[in-house]
Amino acid sequence: MNAESKNILKRSAGVLFTAGLAVCLGSGLSIIYLECIRLLADSVLTKNPSRIWGIFAVFAVSLIISALLLCVQNSKCLTIKQRLIESLEQNAIGIWLGSNYKNKENTEKMLPIIRNDIFTYSEQLSGFMLKITGTAVSVILTGIYVISIEPRLLVLTLFISLAAISISAYRGRKLPEQNEKLYFHMGAIYNHNAELVRNREAAYVLNGERVIKPYQKEIADYKIDQAKILGTMTMQRILGSANTILNTCIILIIGGYGVSKGSIEISDLIVLLSAVGFLTNTLYQIPACISAYQQLKGMDSRINTLLTLQVEACDGSEDIAKINSVSAQNLSFAYEDGKSLFENINLNVKSGECLILNGASGCGKTTLLKIFADILKDYRGNIIYDGKNLKNIKEKAFWDRILYLSQEPQLISGTMKENITMFKEADEMKLNYALEQAGLKKLIPKLQMGIDTPVSMLNLSSGEQQRICLARVFYGDYDVIISDESLSAVDPDSRREIFGKILTQLKEKSQILIMSSHTDFDHNSQGFVKILNMGGKNE
């Protein structure tokens, strides 16, 4: 249980004691019910009706007391739940708004899920404590009652019930993990867009696990985990029913034999059927309590995450309004095992220029581009943007000025328009220009909702997905464009055409393009295109 919940329960010790006392007294009334059944059976068998009305009166009073105790229990349980909800929600939302989300407008999408998780957790926790208390008291008192009539039956009942409980507990051993995954997938599905744009509107590649393909995988994983949990709980219920039936059969056999021998009264046999049936059902609340605990444990992990202040990545202190040059100084990168990928790279690119990285697969082109994009940080040397060290530049300011395109298209779970504008207010003129330059004009009329069609509804080819990402180049006002094979899936003729348009835009907007490509573009006549040959090392 997380520390915050423990503190709330400690402050509610009086309420917990009252609720627990009501549960214990209510469970103790079960003995009165059983005794009423035995006396009623004895009165009927001995044809002594004089006691029947007294027995009914005792039973009725017990029911009234039980109802009052249940009201007290529910009232106190509701109080505890409300205290948990209010305190946990206040802390979680404060943390989420304060540190986890810098973009508070998008946080609004997250708040209903935070509240739903905390409500569910509070309900589970407050109910679980009282349920486990009632189960323990009922098992002890009913066990004592059965022993007073026929000790052997208690031994057999316990043996069979514990076997069923063990099987049930074994089957439910993965419930915490499954339940935690279930809530994780649920949160990822409902908060996909909100989590995608947190902290940085354009740095979608840093949150690559939240693009459309993994988003679809989240839905599939959610269904799988949900089916596993339902299957486990169904099996536990089946075992519970089988346990009750088997114990009833044993009582009938042993009790019937005892009646025939005169060692057990018929009235005792009748109450034993009720008592052992009640006992087995109560015993089988133990695996239900175990399952509840296991699910609560998984849920607690998620709540603990909501209540934990997330460690902010180290951010720079310098703003940058415009990037006119990019340079690398003695840049080296090595793997954790010490094996070097490249060493002492020095280069300089200015506004209006293009740098193309050449080299065989595994020579470090993608790694170098990720270093320029501040995705990989474990490098030696310096990356200088417009005279400022990349390590000192504020992350938000940096990502406002650059665009990173990877070979695997990074599509957001939004509309096609949002995928191009990156959730910013759309400029229709710029948007039409970007669609035309990226070769998407003919695609839009074919879509059900035009440019407002969610990409999750579309069966796009790899080339079409890359074109959507490339449209960001023509729509946004970026100073630096970093492209890692982002034209690879586009057909050859269109590839050269789009590349030519990007080079033209470099000069017009004074942008910088740093890219890797296996395609041999016709760049020899372009004096502003530079080539860096990185060789052919294997990673």
Could you explain how this protein is built, in words?
It is a single chain. With 539 residues, the chain is an alpha/beta fold. It contains 17 helices and 9 strands. Helix content is 61%, strand content 10%. A 5-stranded parallel beta sheet has the order 6-7-8-3-9, with helices on both faces. Helix 17 links the parallel strand 7 (480-484) and strand 8 (512-516). Helix 7 (175-190) packs across helix 11. The longest helix is centred in the middle third of the chain and has 50 residues, at 212-261. The chain is elongated and about 115 Å long.
In short:
This protein is α/β, with parallel strands linked by helices and 539 residues long. It is built from 17 helices and nine strands. The strands form two sheets. It has a five-stranded parallel β-sheet with strand order 6-7-8-3-9, with helices on both faces. Strands 2-1-4-5 form a four-stranded antiparallel β-sheet, with helices on one face.
Please name the defining characteristics of this protein.
single chain, 539 residues, alpha/beta, 5-stranded parallel β-sheet
Question: SSE layout and pairings?
Answer:
Elements: H1 3-11, H2 13-45, H3 52-100, H4 104-107, H5 111-149, H6 151-171, H7 175-190, H8 192-196, H9 212-261, H10 266-283, H11 285-306, E1 325-334, E2 340-350, E3 354-358, H12 365-372, E4 380-385, E5 388-389, H13 395-401, E6 402-405, H14 416-421, H15 428-437, H16 462-475, E7 480-484, H17 492-509, E8 512-516, E9 529-533
